[in-house]
Amino acid sequence: MTDPARAAVEDPWPAPRAHRPVEATVTLPGSKSLTNRALVLAAVADGPSVVRRALRSRDTSLMAAALTSLGAHVDTTGEDWRVTPGALAGDTSVDCGLAGTVMRFVPPVAGLSTGTVSFDGDPHMRKRPVGQVLGALRALGIDVAGDALPFAVRGTGSVPGGTVVVDASASSQFISALLLAGARYERGVDVRHEGAPVPSLPHIDMTVAMLREHGVGVDDTGPDRWSVAPGPVRAVNHLIEPDLSNAAPFLALAAVSGGTVTVRDWPRHTTQAGDALRDILAAMGCDVSLDDAGLTVAGPDELHGVDLDLHDVGELAPAVAALCALATTPSHLRGIAHIRGHETDRLAALATELGRLGADVTEHPDGLELRPAPLHGGVFRTYADHRMAHAGVVVGAAVDGVLVEDVATTGKTFPDFAGFWAGLLA
Ligand SMILES: O=C(O)C1=C[C@@H](OP(=O)(O)O)[C@@H](O)[C@H](O)C1
Ligand SMILES: C=C(OP(=O)(O)O)C(=O)O
Question: Per-residue pLDDT for 123 more than 90?
Fold first, then answer.
């Protein structure tokens, strides 16, 4: 599927400079993680529902298309997406693009269908890990051919379910995937993790919280163990919060320009991992406040480096690394070996591309060290990774002559990111 959210922009894109402190209040598009969970739950629910203020981007369009091809109907014409569950028929194909949530969350739903569902995606998607999910689905009684993309799930209309052990040290999405459809399996699902610590735990908490909103019984009291009771998934309307992880470059703009940026509708309580930006930016010297206007970040005179374990919030690493490259003291970002399996090997990509612009970076197996160094212009390559583009534009706001390659790749989770960004710096 071509990318409808891919805006036509100059490539490489001259990242606009912030020549003065940026003062802005922004309304950001909805959360990818919340939208794609809401769509999956709506598709396996016991009646129609509405996903209000759904994110319209490549990842969510691919999810809507996948669920529609399985037999649910997702009407994406308005701002509020209407989902009507239907008989899950199978004998179809699913394009995962580069969306981890589509490649991991849809196969457990396909197991409930009555036909063969073939999965494939972008070239790099064939390298992203999914074997643990597919092995778990086999153990739960589903016929699955393959251990990586392309693979096929052959549904028989019902899934025995039961107990399964997975190693989710490469991605929290392995656990979320098994939980989201698990209530529809005959014996539910009881998932245990065995291996190095699971990354991105807030994302599993988000899955559990949303399942409970749908009336599903989930026991997550034991360490590394999650049990979903069999039963109906109640149809529930969701209102999607703004994507707090995608707020990172906008808040970073305040940090690097010494300006003030407010993100409207920042929730007081949220399951989104991106909420950690409040503490991260405060640790870097920003003034951070949350009130009825939203989350406001005021940049400091001098940005401090940080020593942070980002294991729970790895998706923030690219924007944070860009800030660290511009900081006046050294930084160490740790605990993020798993982001080598994201849209690209993000540790290698960040070390290479920040390094090409003059940053003093050391790549470690599980993180990055950055020391203060004068940066200069040049082409910042993005490897089809929306968050690499975010890192590039943040550096470009502070450094003359940064050209961001394929900035349109941001359409994965943000429609017309470049236009929106340029508007703030005009
Ligand atoms: O479940 C989700 O919505 C996500 C989980 C995380 O994945 P990993 O656990 O693979 O880091 C996160 O990085 C990704 O952007 C979204
Ligand atoms: C890791 C990410 O995406 P995905 O959902 O494709 O895993 C991300 O958005 O940072």
Answer: yes
38: enclosing H helix or E strand: helix 32-43
* Ligand 2 touching residue 299 (CB < 6 A): no
**What length is written for the chain?**
426
Residue 214 has what pLDDT? 98
State the pTM of this model. 0.97
- What's at 267, amino acid-wise? P
Mean pLDDT over all residues of the chain?
A: 97
Active site residue 194: no
Q: Could you read off the pLDDT of 149-195 as tens digits, one per residue?
A: 999 999 999 999 999 999 999 999 999 999 999 999 999 999 999 99
Question: How far is residue 338 from each of residues 111, 239, 248, measured CA to CA in Å?
Answer: 27, 30, 20
What's the CA-to-centroid distance between 101 and ligand 2, angstroms? 7
Cβ–ligand 2 distance for 385 under 6 Å, the answer: no
Tell me, what DSSP letter sits at residue 20? S
pLDDT in tens, 3-49: 555 667 899 999 999 999 999 999 999 999 999 999 999 999 999 99
Judge contact between 358 and 377, C-beta under 8 A. Answer: no
Q: Is the ipTM of this complex over 0.95?
A: yes
Active-site position among 315, 343, 353, 405: 315
Ligand 2 atom at minimal distance to the Cα of residue 339:
1
DSSP, residue by residue, 81-107: EEEE-------EEEE-TT-HHHHHHHH
What's the CA gap between 3 and 61, in Å, rounded? Answer: 9
Any atom of ligand 2 within 6 Å of the Cβ of 101 = yes
Q: Which domains does the chain have, with CATH numbers?
A: 13-30+242-425 (3.65.10.10), 32-239 (3.65.10.10)
The DSSP call for residue 183 is G
Ligand 1, atom 15: closest residue by C-alpha: 315
Percentage of the chain with pLDDT > 70?
Answer: 98
Pocket of ligand 1 (CB under 6 A): 33, 100-101, 171-173, 176, 199-200, 203, 314-315, 338
